[in-house]
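Weekly modeling sync, notes
Attendees: AB, CL, MP (scribe)

Item 1: holo prediction request
CL wants a bound-state model with NAP before deciding which constructs to order. AB pointed out that an apo prediction alone won't tell us much about the pocket. Agreed to run with the ligand included and paste results into these notes for async review.

Input as submitted:
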Amino acid sequence: MKKTILITGTRKGIGKKLAEYYLSLDFNVIGCSRGSSTINKTNYRHYELDVSNEKNVVKMIRDMKKEFNRIDILLNNAGIASMNHFLTTSSDTVHNIFNTNFLGTFIFSREVSKIMMKQKYGRIINFTTVASALRLEGEAIYAASKSAIENFTQTISKEIAPYNITVNAIGPTPIETDLIKTIPKDKIRDLLNKQAIKRFGTFEDIKNIIDFFIDEKSEFITGQIIYLGGIHN
Ligand SMILES: NC(=O)c1ccc[n+]([C@@H]2O[C@H](COP(=O)([O-])OP(=O)(O)OC[C@H]3O[C@@H](n4cnc5c(N)ncnc54)[C@H](OP(=O)(O)O)[C@@H]3O)[C@@H](O)[C@H]2O)c1
């Protein structure tokens, strides 16, 4: 049976590549973003919404359930970053980052878990960052929002384990997408130098971990956070 995968943040960047990859493997792929779809494939559905808009997300999941009857995998990829010293960070920025990164992950996880619980199967993968493990200066708010996601991942992995749902997280190093475009080159170089393996991450690195987490044989792996590049907490 065709698997159904929901990926948030599929207009561009890692989310778009993941959507295209799972479409190439013949999955039903459902994506979303604030902007309109940039993928035009028969097995792809796109919802234009903000992941922190509870009402719209609930409606999206209800529509998906009607059309596909099940959701096997959820990738909470949508995210925003803001690099700034905390002293010059406005509370509006903090609201925006926490709403997209943490609240969005929470709402999608809760709504999709209700369906996964009924089908007694599910795989949820959340997105964190090495900036959280490194307590990286200049990224205090972004890293804090991702630390919240890590803690949430580990706690809910216990709460929904009885329903055969695993919840894990991936923590990428810098990967060349729009997200890191505005970070000064010397800051990126410093960050790469903190890694055991000193290079940019690639989409292949991400896909490898996600394929591992969603593999049927990974049913005993939950509550784990895998950082790329040899970073650890
Ligand atoms: N690239 C890196 O170096 C790196 C490193 C560590 C972790 N990560 C994590 O990896 C994930 C993907 O990052 P990326 O590099 O692919 O970023 P990106 O290129 O900036 O893409 C972000 C995606 O999320 C969507 N998005 C943003 N805010 C949204 C919202 N409120 N509601 C719905 N969709 C939203 C964007 O589409 P719209 O603008 O149309 O909404 C876009 O499709 C993020 O969680 C990020 O924190 C990335």
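Recorded for review: The chain has a mean pLDDT of 98.
Action items: CL to compare against the apo run; MP to circulate these notes.
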